[in-house]
Amino acid sequence: MIELKNVSKWYGSFQVLDDCSTHIEKGEVVVVCGPSGSGKSTLIKTINALEPIQKGEIWVNGTPVHDPKTNLPKLRSKVGMVFQHFELFPHLTVTQNLTIAQVKVLGRSQDEARKRGLKMLDRVGLMAHKDKFPGQLSGGQQQRVAIARALSMDPIVMLFDEPTSALDPEMVGEVLDVMVSLANEGMTMMCVTHEMGFARKVASRVIFMDVGGKILEDCTKDDFFGNPDARQSRTKDFLGKILQH
Amino acid sequence: MNLSFDFSFYNWDLISNFILKGLYFSVMLTVVATLGGIFFGTLLAMMRLSGRKWLVVPATIYVDGMRSIPLVMVILWFFLLVPMIIGQPIGAEMSAVITFIAFEATYFSEIMRAGIQSVPRGQMSAGQALGMTYGQNMRLIVLPQAFRNMLPVLLTQTIILFQDTSLVYAIGAYDMLKGFEVAGKNYGRPIEAFVAAAVVYFVICYTLSHLVKRLHKRIAIIH
């Protein structure tokens, strides 16, 4: 469904992605991990062209994202994205956050959009907050609304860019719960995260990136966690550090 | 000229015959120049932030150029030049309206530019990720927040603009100050007239800036 072929990207002369290739099949949950500055977030943002690339090809459901002629708004409307800092629209209520793109981008009626949006809001367990403004919600609640907002668009794939790293520790669980249930329902997902428990629970594959924007590992979850001898020493080193505590 | 201060100068005749007409024009000019200035100022701000040279350069030259010239000179030049260009005279009032929109747009553009930059970049990304076009993003996500963040500054600029409308005396338009001046001349009471003018300007502007301060506390967006 998603295919990246030899993707490279530079900021000026600084290379952030180095010849990255991978693919995501329908229904797969792919977790991307690695140290800060390894280009994880950049990689995931290339898939809906929030980050343009200089070399390589990206295909999403048969659409060439790298092609300048591609209608990007149309493509993006089918790719849900959840950001580290939620990025709800602070001047709109929760319900308006959920409906605005459905109406303006998908051309749904207000009623239809509201129905769909509230259904998703109910799904993330926040129906009671539908008339509040984002600033009145906790971080975990805001992130759940952001997930509901992305789901309201009926995306074919969901991209998560460190969805829990800006949250207080006690709020991480509620967001991960929503993500786990999404994964269990067969949603195609790509998640940049350091939550290895989440990866163990639902990932089909794990991608490990290292400084310099290189993909070092791209293997099944069981291989990644269960077969350390087959891993590169850099990966073992990283895993050793984050799994120790 | 009588050197003692004559309070009987202040009466309803003065207001109804000389002041109201001028006040109406001053307020009308302020409102029209504010709305027009914000509209064109926002366009100028978006041009300057577009990152496209062919939009950035002309907008920057226009804004920096206008801001480096005294307003009273722009008013005068406009009044003299426009009839030459379009081949027929335009009234002092019309000329003042056009000049103020063109001039104030540059100040409002700087305010809107700061406002747009005050909205986190992630907001634009979120809109984009939902499939919204650049125009939709600007109109629905970025500008409403920019406008809200900048409302107190925009209103403060409007108060300054109201004071500046008195500069149309240079081309003989009939604004509030002109009303007082004419009345002062007619009754031979220039001191009383200009004292009253100062008091009226002060009361209006002082009240408005207090209202802006209160509004500022009200509208701050909770993040």
Question: Could you characterize what this model shows?
Answer:
The complex is a heterodimer of chains A (245) and B (223). Chain A is an alpha/beta fold. Chain A is built from nine helices and ten strands. Chain A has helices at 40-47, 72-76, 94-104, 110-123, 139-152, 169-184, 196-202, 221-226, 233-243; strands spanning 2-11, 14-24, 29-33, 55-60, 63-64, 79-82, 157-161, 189-192, 205-210, 214-220. In chain A, the strands form two sheets. Chain A has a six-stranded mixed β-sheet, with helices on both faces. Chain A has a four-stranded antiparallel β-sheet with strand order 2-1-4-5, with helices on one face. In chain A, helix 3 packs parallel to helix 5 (139-152) and helix 5 runs parallel beside helix 6. Chain A is globular. Chain B is mostly helical. Chain B has one domain: MetI-like (MetI-like fold, Orthogonal Bundle). Chain B is 80% helix and 0% strand. Chain B has eight helices and no strands. The chains are: A alpha/beta (245), B mainly alpha (223). Chains A and B meet through helix 2, strand 6 and helix 3 of A and helix 5 and helix 6 of B.
Task: Please render the helix and strand layout as text.
The complex is a heterodimer of chains A (245) and B (223).
Chain A (H helix, E strand, L loop, with lengths): L1 E10 L2 E11 L4 E5 L6 H8 L7 E6 L2 E2 L7 H5 L2 E4 L11 H11 L5 H14 L15 H14 L4 E5 L7 H16 L4 E4 L3 H7 L2 E6 L3 E7 H6 L6 H11 L2
Parallel strand pairs in A: 3-8, 3-9, 6-7, 7-8
Antiparallel strand pairs in A: 1-2, 1-4, 4-5, 9-10
Helix pairs in contact in A: 3-4, 3-5, 4-5, 5-6
Chain B lengths: L11 H38 L3 H15 L3 H16 L5 H27 L2 H9 L4 H31 L11 H12 L2 H30 L4
